[in-house]
Amino acid sequence: MIESGTDIRFIQKLLGHTNLETTSLYTKVAQMKATAVASPLDRLGNESGPSVESPIRKPAPRPSVGRMRLEVDPQPDSSGAYAVTLGVWQEGQLLPLPGMRATMPRRDWVSLQIPLQDIWEPTLCCLPAEQRERLEESPEFFSQVQREVAKRILRIRDAEHSQAIKT
Fold first, then answer.
1. How many domains is the chain built from?
2. CA 23 to chain CA centroid, nearest Å
3. Cα separation, 94 vs 90, whole angstroms
4. 59 within some domain
5. Each residue of 34-81: pLDDT tens digit?
6. Which of 67, 92, 102, 143 is the most interior residue, by most CB within 10 Å?
7. Rounded CA separation 33/11 (Å)
C-alpha cells in the first residue's frame, strides 16, 4: 500500500492501530523505481483534466507553510536507534522538534518513532497557526518525514556496506 502512495496514517486507521509506531513496524520501506517518478513537465499537458491513463486525479499538494531541517545521526546508539533531528525555521531561527528516533528492525525496514505532541508543545506554541496545524494534523507531513528518514538511513546503511567491501 505504501508503494502505491497510501498515507501511513490511513493505513494506521485501516489496521486499527492507536500508535503510529505499531503501524510502522508492519510497513516495509517502499523500493520505488525511477520509472515511477513523473516530472512536473509531464503534468503540464494535463492541466485541463485527468489523463486517459489515470482516470482519478490526485489532489494538488498543499502549499508550503515554511522551511524545515531534517538530520539523521549516521551513528546509531547502543540500542541501534538513529537520532533524528527535526527543526522548523521561524524568523531566521531554527526551532527544534526533539525526540524522534528511527530503527531498522529488519533489512530494508525503517521504523520512525515520533514523540507525543506534548514534547513538541514548547516549539509548536511559537509557530504561526498554519505551520502548527500542518505539524499537528497533517498525515502527509508525517508520511513525508517517514519517507525522507527511511531514505537517509538506507543511504547510511548502503554507504557502510560499500565501505566495508572496500576494506
1. 1
2. 14
3. 6
4. no
5. 445 555 555 555 554 444 454 555 556 667 778 889 999 999 999 999
6. 102
7. 22
pTM: 0.58
Q: Which domain holds residue 124?
A: 65-166
User: Measured between alpha carbons, how far is 29 from 18 in angstroms, rounded to an integer?
Assistant: 20
Residue 44 lies in a domain: no
Residue with cell 527511511: 150
d(CA 63, CA 135): 14
C-alpha cell at 7: 498515507
